[in-house]
């Protein structure tokens, strides 16, 4: 009986969401821009596939040390990496639009008191509203993935079983990202007395965790890691570029290869390279810890691990010049388990706070 009341509230909220003009407009804009990004990604994939086929044709003519070398076939998951940038902005706006007035609107219209006069309890109301919002976001994400798969088939691109599993994981991670901002909006809706204030509070938190936190993480990394080590004053060999992760991208640091004199490595350069390696790893550790508080940074890290595992490997092991063996989808997810846990804990904490606040709310 309690579950029936809960699902009745959730069903009503879900219906209100998907039929509202605000939801339809933002969803339509999100789907159109995602489709444009998918089209561009498919063209890039086809170009890379043509280059791969040409390289295969030339493999037969290779001799000497390059004989037997095989190029890496491009994955269609590159296509979905273009959706990540649109998801972090338009997806977050869609999630906020669903949640910011779920409770505050009831306060303004004074309908909560009349709603509670029916045989329905407070926990069923707040849980039903949350489930209805989650269902609406799940509907939006399923629709976006369906359009993406339809476009792939339209261009005669058929995913393998492993790629299809990776697409589903990407969709689930994207939904988790949307739930993070929906939970913030729901929490602010229970705290604020008016929907306008709830929207402002939510946007402030959105800007803080998506932009300010990663920026503060970089500042903290610079402060705690200190200045980079100074290279020895002597001639050096050509430099190599080291890629390491930062908030939402990469930065490059020049690290010289060891100077060789008479067939032996110069000890000063070897010491400098070890110090530089320690310095970059320390920066990365501090930056990664601060980014765990940002749903956007967690989402980008997980999405890159799923869609672009080679780039993710370079981010995690900037000094490893040997190609890393492919560990598959499970291996990629195992490397980002902390980010996955953070993406689960973040919305759970805000949902719990919204639940407690609503249960103790004075409705008069």
From TrEMBL:
<protein>
    <submittedName>
        <fullName>ABC transporter permease</fullName>
    </submittedName>
</protein>
<keyword id="KW-1133">Transmembrane helix</keyword>
<feature type="transmembrane region" description="Helical">
    <location>
        <begin position="131"/>
        <end position="158"/>
    </location>
</feature>
<feature type="transmembrane region" description="Helical">
    <location>
        <begin position="336"/>
        <end position="356"/>
    </location>
</feature>
<feature type="transmembrane region" description="Helical">
    <location>
        <begin position="198"/>
        <end position="225"/>
    </location>
</feature>
<keyword id="KW-0812">Transmembrane</keyword>
<feature type="transmembrane region" description="Helical">
    <location>
        <begin position="21"/>
        <end position="42"/>
    </location>
</feature>
<dbReference type="Pfam" id="PF12679">
    <property type="entry name" value="ABC2_membrane_2"/>
</dbReference>
<keyword id="KW-0472">Membrane</keyword>
<feature type="transmembrane region" description="Helical">
    <location>
        <begin position="76"/>
        <end position="103"/>
    </location>
</feature>
<feature type="transmembrane region" description="Helical">
    <location>
        <begin position="164"/>
        <end position="186"/>
    </location>
</feature>
């Amino acid at each position: 009986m309690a579950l029936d009341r809960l699902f009745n509230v959730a069903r009503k909220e879900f219906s209100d969401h998907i039929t509202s003009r605000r939801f339809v407009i933002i969803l339509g804009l999100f789907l159109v821009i995602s489709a444009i990004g998918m089209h561009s990604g498919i063209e890039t994939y086809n170009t890379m596939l043509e280059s791969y086929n040409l390289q295969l044709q030339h493999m037969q003519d290779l001799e000497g040390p390059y004989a037997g070398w095989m190029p890496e076939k491009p994955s269609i998951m590159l296509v979905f990496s273009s959706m990540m940038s649109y998801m972090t902005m338009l997806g977050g706006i869609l999630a906020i639009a669903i949640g910011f007035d779920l409770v505050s609107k009831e306060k303004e219209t004074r309908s909560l008191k009349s709603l509670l006069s029916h045989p329905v309890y407070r926990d069923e109301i707040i849980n039903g509203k949350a489930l209805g919002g989650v269902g609406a976001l799940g509907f939006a994400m399923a629709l976006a993935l369906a359009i993406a798969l339809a476009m792939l088939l339209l261009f005669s691109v058929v995913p393998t079983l492993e790629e299809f599993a990776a697409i589903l994981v990407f969709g689930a991670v994207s939904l988790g990202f949307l739930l993070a901002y929906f939970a913030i909006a729901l929490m602010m809706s229970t705290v604020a007395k008016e929907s306008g204030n709830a929207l402002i509070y939510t946007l402030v938190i959105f800007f803080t965790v998506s932009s300010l936190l990663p920026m503060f993480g970089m500042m903290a990394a610079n402060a705690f890691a200190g200045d980079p080590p100074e290279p020895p004053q002597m001639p050096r060999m050509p430099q190599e570029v080291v890629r390491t992760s930062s908030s939402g991208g990469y930065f490059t640091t020049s690290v010289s290869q060891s100077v060789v004199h008479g067939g032996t490595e110069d000890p000063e350069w070897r010491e400098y390279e070890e110090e530089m390696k320690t310095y970059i790893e320390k920066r990365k550790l501090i930056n990664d810890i601060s980014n765990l508080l940002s749903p956007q940074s967690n989402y980008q890290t997980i999405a890159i691990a799923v869609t672009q595992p080679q780039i993710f490997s370079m981010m995690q092991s900037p000094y490893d010049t040997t190609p890393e063996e492919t560990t598959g989808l499970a291996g990629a997810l195992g490397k980002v388990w902390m980010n996955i846990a953070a993406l689960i804990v973040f919305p759970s904490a805000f949902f719990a706070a919204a639940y407690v606040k609503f249960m103790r709310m004075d409705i008069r």
